[in-house]
Design brief:
Distance between the termini: 24 Å
Strand content: 25-35%
Structural class: alpha/beta
Radius of gyration: 17 Å
Shape: globular
Number of domains: 1
CATH class: Alpha Beta
CATH architecture: 3-Layer(aba) Sandwich
Order of helices and strands: EEHEHEHEEHHEHEEEEH
Length: about 240
């Protein structure tokens, strides 16, 4: 194994390889839980990075197939290293640009999950490293690119699930609807009941009629700073 990789046990025989360039945060666990993947689903994880969401879905929902897509070869190398240490699972790593991706058949997917770059190309100072720029800024693809590609790959009724910063909410909803993916479910995530949301989770459905269900906010901590039962449920990834 490449020495720069660190292993993280996910439980049930799954092992993730992380590095300073490709790691994960709480948002990955929230999105993996929010998307409600099913055993029969064929899934794609766009911008998979180290593969945390793909592995969580394989572990907790066991979909029929998971395509883990990233434009960065080092990220796919890390994912493959983790898979080599894990139990057999239906994850297929794909190193490709989403805009020109041809490895997944059109209208074949039931679910696409995406933890995208949070910053628009013109927002703030660009990160120094290529990996950080791609992960944090829309330099490799935009929200519109993701939604347009999702529209081509999803079956009718297929779902696209995003997490993003609240200031990008309008951008995401407009991009979804423009691509024919109707926003259907929205949940805000806050540190606690006294703080403004720092993240939102949204699900859109291809070809659906307009109707947006806003779910109760997901709170990470109670008033005493103790992790909520919901956060504990979502983030207990290392237990067998």
């Amino acid at each position: 194994m490449t020495p720069s990789f660190k292993t993280e046990p996910l439980g049930q025989g799954y092992v993730l390889c992380v590095s300073s360039a490709h790691t994960f945060g709480t948002d990955a666990f929230l999105l993996a839980d929010f998307c409600r993947a099913r055993h029969k689903d064929i899934v794609a994880d766009f911008g998979t990075g180290c593969g945390i969401i793909a592995m969580l879905l394989a572990k907790n929902a066991a979909p029929k197939q998971i395509y883990a897509v990233d434009i960065q070869p080092k990220a796919i190398e890390q994912l493959k290293a983790g898979l080599s240490l894990s139990v057999p699972c239906p994850i297929t790593p794909i190193c490709a640009d989403l805009k020109t991706l041809t490895d997944i058949p059109a209208e074949s997917l039931d679910l696409i999950v995406c933890n995208p770059p949070y910053k628009a190309p013109s927002a703030g100072i660009l990160s120094e490293t290529s990996a950080d720029r791609i992960a944090r800024h829309e330099t490799a693809c935009t929200i519109e690119d993701i939604c347009q590609k999702a529209a081509r790959l999803l079956k009718f009724g297929g779902r696209l699930c995003f997490c993003q910063r609240p200031e990008r909410l309008c951008d995401v909803l407009c991009a979804m609807r423009s691509a024919g993916i109707e926003p259907k479910r929205l949940q805000m995530v806050s540190k606690n009941s006294q703080t403004a949301p720092w993240l939102f989770l949204v699900e859109g459905k291809k070809g659906a009629k307009p109707f947006l269900q806003v779910e109760p906010a997901f709170l990470l901590y109670d008033a005493d700073g103790v992790p909520t039962k919901e956060l504990q449920r979502v983030s207990h990834y290392g237990e067998e």
